[in-house]
Specification:
Low-confidence stretches: none
Oligomer: single chain
Number of helices: 12
Helix content: 25-40%
Largest sheet: 7 strands, mixed
Length: 324
């Protein structure tokens, strides 16, 4: 049974991809297969990077990409057409390409982990692949709390009351879309048709003012009644740690982050823009003496925020791990 990792990338996230690949190699395995799903055709830098690495490949099945883009396009059409007190102008939907991560369900790996590109991996991921023997969907996040605060769960319960009973129960099934494990074929072509039929029958209303790839993924996993496993539910487990860059209490030891003594599985640089990552890497490449001391001054001078990036030195370490 083949297992591997999927990532979505293009040239705009080249620095993040290199850092992620290097962190996987350094802290997990240099042999684990990694497949890069192209966000669009702007991938010449990505292709050059892939050519350097024996375990990394490009997802080239255009039929699967088109299948998922057709599905998401139809969902978005239902979303904008559905009458809402918000009005269509106040509705927001992400670009269709953001949903290319769903191609992982039809890819080459029997078991897979999808990881957002702006992520660093700090330990082996075997425990996640092993959990897929007993569960349908593996996550490691606290999205249930964020979704509750944003009233997302209150919207979803309108559709999922019969299946999950209450908002408290339903919230335990909510997850982030930046790091998750599943099996090939867990969502089928027939499933997509059922989703579209149910969404057209007014379930589309639950997306409210924003149809994001994360909300749509949650809708699909909830409709499928997947048996999920969230590693953050077991507080005594060595794997139960924070994962988000907004948590400022992590400790760094030899380029690994720890949460109160527990080694992080991964860190998601959520909210750090591609532009800011680019500025950080250009600054690192510069030959300016005393760079660390000068960074806050130049940030203020050029109206930048490079010095505000949490754990930026850890990212820089992995980004330039193999560069002199």
């Amino acid at each position: 049974m083949q297992q591997g990792i999927y990532v979505v990338a293009n040239n705009n996230v080249y620095d993040q991809l290199v850092a992620l690949l290097n962190s996987v190699e350094a802290n997990y395995s240099r042999d684990i297969p990694i497949c890069v799903i192209p966000y669009n055709n702007n991938i010449d830098l990505i292709e050059k990077e892939i050519a350097k690495r024996k375990n990394v490949s490009l997802f080239e099945n255009q039929a699967i990409i088109e299948k998922w883009e057709r599905f998401v396009t139809r969902v978005q059409a239902l979303y904008y057409d559905y009458p809402s007190e918000l009005g269509s102008k106040k509705k927001k939907a992400q670009k269709v390409q953001h949903s290319r991560k769903y191609c992982a369900f039809d890819g080459e790996f029997d078991k897979f982990i999808f990881i957002d590109c702006d992520t660093l991996v700090f330990r082996p991921l075997n425990h996640i692949f092993q959990k897929l023997d007993d569960y349908d969907f593996i996550v490691h996040d606290f999205q249930r709390k964020t979704s509750s605060n944003k009233n997302t769960i209150d919207s979803f319960i309108e559709v999922f009351q019969d299946s999950y009973g209450s908002t408290d129960v339903l919230s335990r099934y909510f997850h982030c879309s930046g790091f998750w494990g599943a099996k090939r074929g867990a969502i089928t072509e027939l499933d997509l048709e059922v989703f579209l039929q149910d969404l057209a029958s007014s379930e589309i209303r639950i997306f409210g003012d924003k149809l994001s790839e994360q909300r749509l993924l949650n809708y699909m996993t909830l409709k499928k009644l997947f048996k999920p496993y969230n590693l953050t539910f077991d507080g005594d487990s060595e794997y139960c740690t924070g994962v988000c860059v907004t948590s400022k209490h992590f400790e760094e030891k030899q380029h690994i982050l720890y949460d109160k003594g527990k080694r992080l599985t991964y860190l998601h640089y959520m909210g750090v823009s591609n532009e800011l990552f680019g500025q950080l890497c250009e600054w690192q490449k510069s030959k300016i003496p005393f760079k660390n001391a000068l960074l806050p001054i130049t940030d203020k001078l050029f109206d930048r925020k490079i010095s505000s990036i949490p754990y930026k030195d850890v990212f820089v370490h992995y980004r330039f791990l193999h560069e002199a």
